[in-house]
Amino acid sequence: MKIVKLKPKTIIKLILFLIVIAGFLYVIFQSGESDQSINVPTAPAVPTEEEEPAEETETPDEQQPEVEQPEQVVADVPTAEERPETIASKQQEIDGHSFFMENNFLELYLNEENLSLIVREKATGAVMYSTVKEPIERN
Q1: Over 90: is that where the pLDDT of 36 sits?
Q2: Which one has a higher pLDDT value, 39 or 113?
Q3: β-pairing, 116-121 with 106-111?
Q4: What is the distance between the alpha carbons of residues 97 and 81, in angstroms, rounded to a whole number?
Q5: Cβ pair 123, 89 in contact under 8 A
Q6: Largest CA distance in the chain
Q7: Which of 61, 67, 97, 123 could, after both became Cys, cross-link 111 (CB 3.0–4.6 A)?
Q8: Rounded CA gap, 14 and 24, in Å?
Q9: Which residues pair with 29 in a beta bridge?
Q10: What is the CA radius of gyration of the chain?
Q11: What is the pLDDT of residue 81?
Q12: CA nearest 97: which of 77, 114, 73, 80?
């Protein structure tokens, strides 16, 4: 009978392989026998109109000074844009956007300066813009 001499690398690989297999078998057999349940955290209950939330009382030492809110200047913002919502037929240019391409259902118009788009539905003539006509500071 011949005894095989193993290299140290092979012995280490064999030991690591056996550890991985033993761990895998342990996890499989432990998960079937475990009676522990997993506790999932839940969100706190939201008070309904009938229930009033508990008010926090502040002592004078804990009161926070009021922070002044900056006044917001409201500009004269138009309620609706002056752009047409429908266009009856195909155009070479709409609102500075040149005709670019079309398929059976839609037409695409492109403004190369700012890369904005206009999409026109052929069946209804409805027009959708990718930009606002007169942007304001908040847009």
Answers
A1: no
A2: 113
A3: antiparallel
A4: 17
A5: no
A6: 100
A7: 97
A8: 15
A9: none
A10: 35
A11: 59
A12: 114
91-124: per-residue pLDDT in tens?
A: 899 888 999 999 999 999 999 888 889 999 999 9
Instruction: Check: pTM over 0.85? Answer yes or no.
Output: no
Rounded CA gap, 86 and 124, in Å? Answer: 8
Q: What contacts 53, CB < 8 A, 6 or more positions away?
A: 47
CA-angle at 31, arms to 29 and 33, nearest 5°: 75
Residue 134 binned pLDDT confidence (cut-offs 50, 70, 90): confident
d(CA 33, CA 21): 19
Nearest to 138 by CA among 68, 82, 72, 69: 72
Residue 15, SS3? Answer: helix
For residue 77, give Cα distances in angstroms to 26, 51, 71, 114, 136. 68, 41, 17, 23, 8
What's the gap between Cα 115 and its chain centre?
24
